[in-house]
Design a protein that fits this description.
alpha+beta, flat
């Protein structure tokens, strides 16, 4: 699991055009595949 405190926060564009972070995107991917 990614440690939020040590992970780099990188802004990326979500599918709807909003800005999210790698941590949020990781959670989304885990939920999507989970």
């Amino acid at each position: 699991m990614i440690d939020v405190n040590s992970s780099k926060v990188i802004a990326v564009f979500d599918f709807d055009g909003t800005i999210t972070t790698v941590d949020t995107l990781f959670d989304f991917i885990m939920d999507f595949h989970g």
